[in-house]
Amino acid sequence: MRLKLGALLAASLLLLAPVLWAPDLRAQPSPGAPAGPPAVSVSAAPATIGPVPLEVLANGIVQATAIVSVRARVDGQIEVVHVQEGQSVTRGQPLFTLDSRANRALLAQQQANLDKDRAQLARARSDAQRYAALRSDAYASAQRAEQAAADALAGEAQVRGDEAQIEQTRLNISFAEIRAEADGRLGALPIKAGNLVRLAEGTVLATITPTDPVLVTFNVPERWLAELRAATTRGETPRARVRAPEDASGAPVWGNLVFIDSSVDQQTGTILLKARFDNAEGRLWPGQYVETVLVPRTDAAALSVPVAAVQTGPEGRFLFTLKDGTAHRVPVRLLRLAGDRAVLAAEALGAGDMVVTEGAQRLRDGMRAVARGAAGARPTAEATPAVQQAAIQQVSGR
């Protein structure tokens, strides 16, 4: 019986021996398995040092340099309207023609009076010369000679008065042709042909709004006053650019600052500014709302990165840099924004340092990362949440 039990035990050991001594294949890494979590694929761009303008954003309103109100300068009925509402006109272009027949008749009457008075003046001058000769020969009294001279002087005054009246009537006739006093665009025309207009009523026949150049008025916080005064002291004219919201696809229009208000508005803490813009293409329209950017100066050597690279956390602003395939969290101090660039204090970055612009939310300090398009970069699809969590645990030691 003992021999049978021993034989069974020996047989069992022989059967279990291969299992006990077999190597654990699961513990051996396969030749193609990765050594750790894959690098996170991100987008990156270099930090640059170069000229960056100082930009002050504001909301502006387009204004005309002047608005000309067209009024009649004489009484009369409108015979012809030469223009249409909204039409562009040039200085000197006819707008309206008034009935001037009454003034023309008056001019003819005044011309006849002038001819009569000139004839009388000629006779008075002749009498004055004759009596002056007789007075010298003692054939006429001094009183008669003086009277003839006075009549000649009165005749000259009468002629000058007639000529002045004729000039006034001719001026009134010219006023019957109402012309544009400035280049610009017409507004609505409330008066039509056939209406009677009177000088005393002061009726506005039309308005002309010049559109080239135009002004843009806007307000900026008073903290920028020092920059504006400094630019004025340097003899520089600050530049400004504007763009209408509906014209976002077009290039901005550039102009020059021409006016700084003499005082700061105490209620709003802002100061009123005006900039002049050439507007030959008519892109800016009086009364239009525009996005305004004032450029009081340009920093020649500013450190800047894309705005998308700057992140905000509980401890302040930071960004990630890429170096040797590793992401490094770098605290930064933001000075200002200039378009799509963020100007930073040159403390922790240098020109050419690669900063992460897309994918920073998946990074932690010290994590493996590679820029898209670089050698060895993995597709973005590999950065799944499970892989990100594994990489975070590896970096944190969990």
UniProtKB/TrEMBL annotation:
Presence of the UniProt keyword Cell cycle in the record: no
Pfam annotation, one family: BSH_RND
GO MF, one example: efflux transmembrane transporter activity
Protein name (Swiss-Prot/TrEMBL): Multidrug efflux system membrane fusion protein
Compartment(s) of residence: Cell membrane
UniProt KW Aminoacyl-tRNA synthetase keyword: no
Occurrences of domain Multidrug resistance protein MdtA-like beta-barrel (ranges): 213-292
Span of domain Multidrug resistance protein MdtA-like alpha-helical hairpin: 107-175
PANTHER family cross-referenced by the UniProt entry: BLL3903 PROTEIN, MULTIDRUG RESISTANCE PROTEIN MDTA
Alphabetical keyword list: Cell inner membrane, Cell membrane, Membrane, Signal
Family: Belongs to the membrane fusion protein (MFP) (TC 8.A.1) family.
SUPFAM superfamilies referenced in this protein's UniProt entry, alphabetically: HlyD-like secretion proteins
Signal peptide bounds: 1-22
InterPro entries hit by this protein: MdtA-like_b-barrel, MdtA-like_BSH, MdtA-like_HH, RND_pump_MFP
NCBIfam families documented for this protein: RND_mfp (TIGR01730)
GO cellular component: a single term: efflux pump complex
Multidrug resistance protein MdtA-like barrel-sandwich hybrid domain: residues covered: 67-209
Domain of life: Bacteria
